[in-house]
Amino acid sequence: MAVNEDVRAELDFLVALRRDLHAHPELGFEEERTSQIVAEHLTETGMKVHRGLGGTGVVGTLTVGNGPRTIGLRADMDALAMPETADRPYKSTVPGKMHACGHDGHTTLLLGAARELARTRNFSGTVHFIFQPAEEGRGGAKRMVEDGLFELFPCDAVYGLHNMPGLDTDEMAVVAGPQLASSDSWQVRFRGVGTHGAKPHLGKDPVTAGGHFLASLQTIVGRVVDPLQPAVVSACSVQAGDPKALNVIPDFIDIAGTARAYTLRVRDQLEEEIGRLANGVAAMFGIEAEYRFIRRIPPVVNDADATARALAAAQAVCGDKVRTDFPPSTAGDDFAFFSQDVPGAYVWLGNGPAVDGALHHNTAYDFNDGAIGTGVKFWTTLVEQELAA
Ligand SMILES: [Zn+2]
Ligand SMILES: [Zn+2]
């Protein structure tokens, strides 16, 4: 009975911790309170704790026995700049910020696993518990890598986990290959010569060039990229002229958007083809094109060996409720900066039914505390199997 009481007490502790984090969301690189809590709990277990990588990043290191293998487990800590609309006892206390992606849950799961593994010590090797800042588009993983994450904490494999609405809380999805798309931005400025709207022949109209560019943009995905390779190119911003000056042809038009791919080759192709199209259209109209492609996040592509190890752990925890045919997401995750340097696997943990706003980045989203038990068990099992004594 004592064992069951311990398990229940630990679960209560983790639920309270998760709700406290939920009530105090912090944006990327501002996770002062969260990283302080993480560091305190890690220190309490007796493990070595390193702070400051990527600003607010925290790494806890637990070595047991003399096993030579070392693995990294990653949780993200940041919230989003958006209001929380749902009423709940632990609703965000910070206006305009909320944990709408469940990173409060990810932080809790990894802390729970760190506490458990530091107690049970049923493995031989080294685990780095990596708590990263700023996953939501602010570049936290990249900063940690640039700050020397893998020089200070070399890893033979690295693992990431994200909650997923639509899967049960005792269900996981573990799939080899592409999991999340690359997420890059691009900008085109067509620079013409502004003139009177009634005298277009005296200038060079960039707006018409912009129209041709937009009309041709989808031929990149439709006609150039291999039809069996997923890719997305979207123009998301168009700015030119002034609606209060309808007799003025402006000097330039700015068009910008996003590009997504699941392989490095298609990513390169999108970068090249958008630029080619921009320059070709500019040449056609005798104007200039300025083109920038901003590489933000590479695709997350699961390594076969790391995926097999993660799958074995997930099956040990969830039995036959592990999906191996789950579709990839067109979202991105900067876990890619970890898994492009070290063999990695990124897995999905169920968050319950995807109903009534229960979708990532919705103002009513909430991590499901019912998944804490499954998530912690997955991490601890992965370590015990990966670093078997
Ligand atoms: Zn998110
Ligand atoms: Zn997320």
TrEMBL record:
Residues 184-278 form the Peptidase M20 dimerisation domain. The keyword Hydrolase applies. It holds the Pfam family M20_dimer. Keywords: Hydrolase. The keyword Transcription does not apply. It comes from the Bacteria. This is Amidohydrolase. It comes from Nitratireductor rhodophyticola.
